[in-house]
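Homework-ish question, so no full write-ups if that breaks the rules, but can someone show me the predicted structure for this set?
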Amino acid sequence: MPENILIVGGVALGPKAACRCKRLNPDATVIIVDENVHVSYGGCGIPYFISGEINNLDDLRATPYHTVRDPEFFRRMKGVTVRTQTRALAIDRAAKTLLVKDLVSGREQTLPYDKLLLATGASPRIPPVEGRELSNVLSLTRLEAAAAIRSACQKGSVGKAVIVGGGFIGLEAAVALSDMWGVKVSVVEMTNQLLPGALSASCARMAAHDCTSHNVDVFTSEKVLRLTGKDGAVQGVVTDKRELAADLVIFAAGFLPNSELARTADLPVTAFGAIAVDEYMRTADPDVYAGGDCASIKNIITGKMGYLPLGSMANRQGRVIGTNLAGGTATFPGYVGTWAIKLFDLSFCGAGLTAERAVAEGFDALGVGVEQLDRAHFYPEKNMMGLELVLERSTGRVLGIQGAGPGGDALKARVDAVAGVLQYAKPTVADISNLEVAYAPPFAAAMDIVNVAGNVAENVLAGRFTPVTGEAFMELWQKRDKNKVFFIDSRPAAGRAVEANHPDWHSIPLEEIAARIAEVPRDRPVALICNTGLRAYDSVLILARNGITDVVNAMGGMQSVRKMGLKP
Amino acid sequence: MPENILIVGGVALGPKAACRCKRLNPDATVIIVDENVHVSYGGCGIPYFISGEINNLDDLRATPYHTVRDPEFFRRMKGVTVRTQTRALAIDRAAKTLLVKDLVSGREQTLPYDKLLLATGASPRIPPVEGRELSNVLSLTRLEAAAAIRSACQKGSVGKAVIVGGGFIGLEAAVALSDMWGVKVSVVEMTNQLLPGALSASCARMAAHDCTSHNVDVFTSEKVLRLTGKDGAVQGVVTDKRELAADLVIFAAGFLPNSELARTADLPVTAFGAIAVDEYMRTADPDVYAGGDCASIKNIITGKMGYLPLGSMANRQGRVIGTNLAGGTATFPGYVGTWAIKLFDLSFCGAGLTAERAVAEGFDALGVGVEQLDRAHFYPEKNMMGLELVLERSTGRVLGIQGAGPGGDALKARVDAVAGVLQYAKPTVADISNLEVAYAPPFAAAMDIVNVAGNVAENVLAGRFTPVTGEAFMELWQKRDKNKVFFIDSRPAAGRAVEANHPDWHSIPLEEIAARIAEVPRDRPVALICNTGLRAYDSVLILARNGITDVVNAMGGMQSVRKMGLKP
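A: Not a homework solution, just the prediction itself:
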């Protein structure tokens, strides 16, 4: 059993693997080296420290008992040696040694290892733009930056902030700054949507509306060209479309895996720079492991090597590696890509591929959206939830799911149920129709929204109706002079909304459509909408029975349209 | 394609199957017969109507748009004929006819069918005790009974109620009567725990404590012998242990599947009286289907035919049957048994087998309990959650999961994630350790409780510590004079609870145990407890390194003990 375990990196995975290894093999010598002062902190909590929801920065590196996880903690409680401010310079794989440098004394030293773990994490991607060295230009991975931002907010010296990048960390920071400190925030995102790769275009539009309706400006398909400053401090951001004033700029434009150490030791890395590992989390060298934000693991859905830098992934992988460092043979199955984020009124959650991502991966994929209450409709406390199921057209295989709603835990329940099946089986839409989830009126509907998503997807695949997104429906509406589409609102006349007050927006409730079939033209395309999609579907079937088949139906109905901030 | 579809029973599955069939095959004639006045109602909502959370009884038989689902609704909107107050008397399978009787006119009629669906539901099991015919003795399956109970509560004429049966409906009714109307409720349960079959003994003790601490008396292992009355109205309940005064008695002692029609037509039923169906939900006669509360389906975990009368099962099965009635070949995979219930401060949720049930089914099974916060510990809003994973000792196969906590949706998320995997794979504890669930600090911990449950289970199976339940720990404590166990509280000294103020309750925090090892006797068994179980586990490892191995550790720590209402 190996005696000398050496770990490079002490944030999440490194300490987890160290403690697990030490528990299983108390005789091992376990040393963690890290070039920073702080180790073992919850980097994911930084936005919540900035917002003030977490009061003390030390809470991010403390146990639930408020014991700070510093080197002394690891020595006394875990029997693990932590050497901070110690940079790993080079691996000599033949000699099984690691060259390190003490950043305080400047002294270099060669440490022997039996097993080495690279837990070097990732660095924020800073676009190479002019002005990036100005003060008040930060990224959000270090505790020091978090403290600086919160301190500036508390002093009132941040009136306007620009966040470069509309991914998870960028949006969490936007919410924190805007909601708590009243900072006027602009998010600049290079791609054409927020949370690219995680959300479908429709869901991303809902996320954007949640931001803009809470005074956060969102600029997509926009590129930062340079930062401007005065007296060394940032003053503005120039994009390819506008100039934005800024007292604070946060770069949240993704991560680059820290894999130099591995590369210079001739360990294979993937195309996007992450260290390739097998199911045991071992690199090409059986004595060198890697995991967390610096490593590439298998995407279970595509079967290809991928990258998912998330604290939860790091923790789970850390335990697997810890077992193996102690002589075990634990495996990590890869990932399907499961995530969650809380914005303002809405939470978003997803697993697997988006429709757009699936198409890019070569699947003949489409997304099918539904909206429904997250409880029995007769139960008093309830929220509207939206889910989008991503499927392969030819096989009905489910490739992913995403959703949005005010009830975050309830949304997580639906997504996690599908995520588990995606991880250990290859579900079809029929499996989601029949997915057995916990039911009682305070928790779910008897035909729960996750099952309804499967049902609707099955109806779409069977060609029973032609779906359009709420966005596409509203685009048809805007262009009605050209496309000559006939619009039908299938909601009950009693509940007729303001949208009905337009001569081209025809209110023909489901209850009346059979009797009023003569009002529906046979020489024009027809587009139907209702509240959530269900009555419009029943109306489509009635139209079909009457020979009217050039019909589309808005998925998720007006509920989806409104979440996107659209109006007829 | 069959033309005449005849359905017996119009509550949940019948209407669902009828509408689905009619959507797929609009040319079919679909007739539902039901002996009652009301059809298509949400029976699961009855407790919430009694509590007043649902205001109007019609809400239970209305669409989300407040359209009441009466025969006229089905005729106009769905093209389905509903004949209420019409009792099915006999099936002639050779002639493919059903004899029915109009309960108003008394007239009998023979209806032909191409496909017949038995959706006859189940009847409440009324124990054959004296006095069961008294007034104010009710069960909770009919809307009429619900209206009578609420009306009596509103009039203030119910001071004391006895509920016979501590299953789902019994407890939902107990909460409704006690919480909303201040009725003094006693629950009498024949078996030795609440929610038998659904909850482990430990979790059931938590449910009982949630009830008793909210003024609901719970009497388990107690049998009702007779009801006493005055002037025809119930006045008391005599059990084998006491006499309870009662203005209202509710029988909630389980269900008996309504399978007489099938039995008299020589269709096979299972030992417990439910109609046997195959994966297409077909009986032994290919032209006769059955589903919902009258049918038996496969338990995916045991592989045996079982019974799960739940509205959600009926809805999903109804859709499958509707597809098949229209000529399709949809299948229903069976069930793992997933459920949820909200009591007072706590919600409970589970899937699969309990440890006790698994042992009864022949598995060498045990339950492993954990307690942890349902969010990142540094996130301000969070709740303590308890989970119990049920596993097969020899293989590490996961057979079930249950949990308890104040955050119901968050609990559902963990249980549903495991339920999905149980349904479509045969997960091991390692799969639960690695289960990929959505993570962000407002939703989960980086090492989420569901993963921790897998980790702890793996440690138990590997023999790294010997767990005892909180209940067993407290029993050891009570009998300390005899068993000579040495008790250690591993919580930090600063957070030392009142329990420590006893000379035999030794406070040796994890931080100090290595230094104070001499205080731990080597000739006595040792029992450790902490807040949730984690620090006690680390202490166990330190004791083991020092040669002290006759040690047990309380699963879920004081969090679990307190939820059971126990005190040192």
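Now go work out the reasoning yourself. Hint: Chain B has a mean pLDDT of 94.
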